[in-house]
């Protein structure tokens, strides 16, 4: 049984021994394969058998996946060959060692070598066109690139990638750039089941749990050893509970300042929290979302050191940068009452009933973004109004919207398409020789109905009853007149 498979099951929360050791039915490890008269228990066993000092089994595996079956091509030496180089009195065993010594990209040095360049000075010369190779001065020293500077400043406690992140944030002080990372596994001491662990890594290693998972839980505020060892789902439940406790603490802070958080405002006006955050960002940028909130309702919150250092605030990322005044509740509710007083009519046959018709302004309103309390006007172009039904965008003319309200019981399945209607009229009136009769019948038809079918396409036509009424009317008048003319 592969050790990696058992570890993977343990990380998923499986603790029963029979489930941990259960063979994987879909694993390729159990498929035997025959190669040149020899049988191997798996593909990996074959690749390891074919591997050589100059060709690893992983490379053979990749070549096998690409369709190569010839043994010579499978076991051919890899193209990555060490090229010893001597420069400035030093001997480098490979091109990579030369590149690392002078802080140059090893891929760049290798590509130059493949182009035929053998002079070490030309191999390590930075390219002018490369954005990463722009020279930079730092305290009197010149570096060919920013990466070279970051690697020069790197220490065992602070790697160059962390320095790069701090540099891009605008930090230029050397002490702050090379300051050790805040999180250190060695500084965390844990006691569990009568045993002391010197670091978080030792604790994770002893219980055969992923260190990254334990570290992530610790950084999120889970410091109880039982919770650190729990399966992922139980940890998620704990984090959700912890998040609600932090939100309660934030509401308590803002209440003392006379403000209200986006979470609390969402509960007061019955709107989704994400909607309020989106509206707040747009209003700060100067846009108008027409839900009643004013720019004066949004305040940037300033927290004291005592509030930030409170032990209840485990995750400071949940602190809102902006909060709302209490007047925001009245403004949203007044806007809602203003719209509700319009006596909006629900437009039928539109999924979810999120669209309404205002008779006074002859316009369409919607509350699709909220939960029934916030309405906004829908503006269309060229007298067409856009609707979104089950994530499908559909445009209807305003006359069709009025037709939907006037005839709510006519559906797309009840309509006969315009092409079919013409053929039916011609056949029923037996007027293939008389084109004027067909034109008169068309003129008597009411305006065609627009309906949305199950495939979210607009179907245009008339009902069967409307066609039959027109045919009967034409028969009584026009056909009788033709017969009188023939008799005369």
Task: Describe the protein's architecture and organization.
Helix 6 crosses helix 7 (106-114). The radius of gyration is 38 Å and the shape is extended. It is built from 23 helices and 20 strands. The longest helix has 25 residues, at 232-256. The termini are far apart. Helix content is 44%, strand content 15%. The strands form eight sheets. It has a four-stranded antiparallel beta sheet, covered by helices on one side. A three-stranded antiparallel beta sheet has the order 9-11-10. It is α+β, with helices and mostly antiparallel strands. Among the domains are: 1-28, no CATH class; 190-230, no CATH class; 240-337, no CATH class; 342-393, no CATH class; 412-487, no CATH class.
Please name the defining characteristics of this protein.
20 strands, 23 helices, single chain, alpha+beta, 488 residues
Summarize this entry quickly.
With 488 residues, the chain is an alpha+beta fold. Among the domains are: 1-28, no CATH class; 190-230, no CATH class; 240-337, no CATH class; 342-393, no CATH class; 412-487, no CATH class.
